[in-house]
Amino acid sequence: MERPEPELIRQSWREVSRSPLEHGTVLFARLFDLEPDLLPLFQYNCRQFSSPEDCLSSPEFLDHIRKVMLVIDAAVTNVENLSSLEEYLASLGRKHRAVGVKLSSFSTVGESLLYMLEKCLGPAFTPAMRAAWSQLYGAVVQAMSRGWDGD
């Protein structure tokens, strides 16, 4: 697999990482638009959220958004050495599998990530940047997918 273009990734992430919660919320709002069936997977204290808005404003979910943005941040930081994150990402995959997340849902997460980057960066989000992010995200999901391989 070709390595994503590190400079394009870093440059675009700099803007996003200034307000991770705001941009992470855009990512998840888009995710729930595209795949509403994911909403019931997020339950805290056995409480079902009545709507995506309800979920997106809960303190527990905001914590999840922060964690997701930190994982992306780690991938950006290690863009030239993603193999250093392999074990961590595989265990993250196992955690997601344990709560009932399907591996296929991660392609929707990828679309939502690109959507968020485009919303944040506007015209500065070039086709080359989109390609670099698609590659990086693909590599992250590949590492996470090991969490679904056997036990």
Structure description:
- It catalyses: Fe(III)-heme b-[protein] + nitric oxide + H2O = Fe(II)-heme b-[protein] + nitrite + 2 H(+).
- This protein has about 150 residues and is mostly helical.
- The chain has one domain (about 5-145): Orthogonal Bundle (Globin-like).
- It is built from 7 helices and no strands.
- The protein has helices at about 5-15, 20-35, 50-55, 60-75, 85-100, 105-120, 125-145.
- Helix 2 packs across helix 4.
Describe, in short, the structure shown.
By secondary structure, the chain is an all-alpha fold.
Q: H/E series, N to C?
A: HHHHHHH
Please give the largest β-sheet: none
CATH class categorisation: Mainly Alpha
How is the CATH topology named? Globin-like
Range of helix content: 55-70%
What distance lies between the first and last C-alpha atoms, to the nearest angstrom?
Answer: 26 Å
Low-pLDDT parts are none
Rough outline: globular
- The percent range for strand residues is under 5%
